[in-house]
Amino acid sequence: MIYFYGYLALINLTALVLCAKDKYAAIRGRWRVPERTLLLFCAFGGAWGMGLGMILFRHKIRHRKFTVSVPLLCLLWLAATIYLATGVIK
User: Fold this and answer.
1) Per-residue burial over 30-61, b = 16 or more CB atoms within 10 Å of its CB, e = otherwise
2) pLDDT score, position 88
3) Which residues fall in a coiled-coil region (predicted)?
4) At what angle do helices 64-85 and 47-57 cross, to 10 degrees?
């Protein structure tokens, strides 16, 4: 279980950093992180980091794709974490 929590911490931190990097690049007119990459990080467990990044940096808040999928993925990962933490799978 400790590896699972470590994985979630790392991928959420990475998603948050990617969100910050993309916002910085958007302001400066530089190369951007593809939306597909951001959404893949959300799908693989970084939804909470991306959600925090969206709030902190006001990034991707006008894109329906993100305002719908990120909260749904947050709920999905929360449910998965609770399911695993309750000891259903040993």
Assistant:
1) eeeeeeeebbebbeebbbbbbbbbbeebebbe
2) 67
3) none
4) 140
CA neighbor of 51 nearest in space, from 12, 10, 2: 12
What is d(CA 55, CA 20) in angstroms, rounded to the nearest whole number? 11
Tell me the pTM.
Answer: 0.85
| Residues 12, 4 contacting (CB under 8 angstroms) | no
Helix (H) and strand (E) counts for the chain? 4, 0
Does residue 44 surpass a pLDDT of 90?
A: yes
Q: Is 38:32 a contact under the CB 8 Å cutoff?
A: no
Q: Tell me the backbone φ, ψ of residue 3, rounded to 5 degrees.
A: -65, -35
Tokens of 47: 């939804």
